[in-house]
Design a protein that fits this description.
The complex is a heterodimer of chains A (118) and B (114). Chain A is mainly beta and 118 residues long. Chain A has one helix and twelve strands, in the order E-E-E-E-E-E-E-E-E-E-H-E-E. In chain A, the strands form three sheets. In chain A, strands 2, 5, 6, 10, 11 and 12 form a six-stranded mixed sheet that branches. Chain A has a four-stranded antiparallel sheet with strand order 3-9-8-7, with no helix packed on it. Chain A has a two-stranded antiparallel sheet with strand order 1-4. Helices cover 0% and strands 48% of the residues of chain B. The chains are: A mainly beta (118), B mainly beta (114).
Chain lengths: 118, 114
């Protein structure tokens, strides 16, 4: 079955530091890949996504590239802010044909807590 | 547009008691999901509905968990009887019909079983 493995946290950084969160996956077919973020006291929110190999998703200064050859989708940000403190989840979806038939079903990694200090 | 609504926000019960959670998805969203998020772990899918039909309940512990979505809109998840290991945040999410990949999540119900 599908699975997602991401680096364990917590990751503690100073403001303006570079952030990388590693994510690798195992899946059948051609899944889409996602990063979701959970800010303190809030629900999960989609941060970015990529739907095919070599696609780059980006949002709010975060980027991740769909690497099929290494089955990876690492999240990066060049200069983090205190407001980026949150838990980040890597996730993958079913193959697109499955999604069209019956909606999406996400498989999540365990989450990585990021704490940015001023 | 209004987001996914869940209630209650918190619930504390003793083991062997029963509990129910309610979810109202975004208007017009055909697909509804219940996820269980144990502390320190990623969310795990419990059940997925398409309108009022069950698409996937393979990870739902059916001896104690049940869920329904009678009119294809709001949904209820029940646990009876609860065990200590059911302590978790229960997340509801919804998405549009027809392959829209974005899931919208509610804030969740935090359950503590003592």
């Amino acid at each position: 079955g599908n699975s997602v493995t991401q680096m364990e946290g917590p990751v503690t950084l100073s403001e303006e530091a570079f952030l990388t969160i590693n994510c690798t996956y195992t899946a059948t077919g051609y899944p889409s890949l996602f990063w979701y973020v959970q800010y303190p006291g809030e629900g999960l929110q989609l941060l970015l996504k990529a739907t095919k190999a070599d696609d780059k998703g980006s949002n709010k200064g975060f980027e991740a590239t769909y690497r099929k050859e290494t089955t990876s989708f690492h999240l990066e940000k060049g200069s983090v802010q205190v407001s980026d403190s949150a838990v980040y989840f890597c996730a993958l979806s079913e193959d697109l044909q499955m999604i069209k038939a019956a909606g999406n079903k996400l498989t999540f990694g365990g989450g990585t807590r990021v704490l940015v200090k001023p | 547009e209004a987001g996914v609504a869940q209630s209650p926000r918190y619930k504390i019960i003793e083991k062997r008691q029963s509990v129910a959670f309610w979810c109202n998805p975004i208007s017009g969203h055909a697909t509804l999901y219940w996820y269980q998020q144990i502390l320190g772990q990623g969310p795990k899918l419990l059940i997925q509905f398409q309108n009022n039909g069950v698409v996937d309940d393979s990870q739902l512990p059916k001896d104690r968990f049940s869920a329904e979505r009678l009119k294809g809109v709001d949904s209820t998840l029940k646990i009876q009887p609860a065990k200590l290991e059911d302590s978790a945040v229960y997340l509801c999410a919804s998405s549009r019909r027809g392959g829209d990949e974005k899931l919208f999540f509610g804030s969740g119900t935090q359950l503590s079983v003592l």
